[in-house]
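Lab notebook, bench 4. We co-purified these components, and the gel suggests they stay together. Before we commit to crystallization screens, I want a quick structural picture of the whole thing.
Request: model the full complex, all chains together.
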Amino acid sequence: MAILLREAIGDQLRRVRTDQGRTLREVSTSARVSLGYLSEVERGQKEASSELLAAICDALDVPIGDVLTEVGRALSPVVIDVIPADATAAAELVAA
Amino acid sequence: MAILLREAIGDQLRRVRTDQGRTLREVSTSARVSLGYLSEVERGQKEASSELLAAICDALDVPIGDVLTEVGRALSPVVIDVIPADATAAAELVAA
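Here is the predicted assembly.
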């Protein structure tokens, strides 16, 4: 089965936290959630409610939208080939 | 308060569905969720579990990652000014 949303969210939250060199304890205290809850969310074992996800992102000082954008990429990696199209448009502008 | 994740997800699911000209009934039947549940999810009144969100996206024939990427943009709108840079790069390529 494909990766579930809660797993992708958990992976991303853990990545942000560990990149900041912070412990589960620090972030859970800051977000006012239990350490066990945060740990379960990070492992994709529990669905975070929207309110608690917002609190966790706030504690991590990361915009929730950025987390979700990364989650979207993790769930559907897409290569969008924009540069050639822009280059063509730019070349046409230059030629005009 | 800022938009909650479930509200942004609901907005996006509704947008995808209405863009396809499909009814709540059609999509809820296809996703095997109740019409009332789908309606509550679309209105941001209920948290969709990861499994049911996957089923709804499957019924809408849209990758869940694409939905989340759009949700991420809605939650943290960022203007990235890529075209002028690409145009400059392209112009330099053309000039070279």
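Chain A has a mean pLDDT of 87. Worth comparing against the SEC data before the next meeting. Chain A touches chain B through 39 residues (CB under 8 Å).
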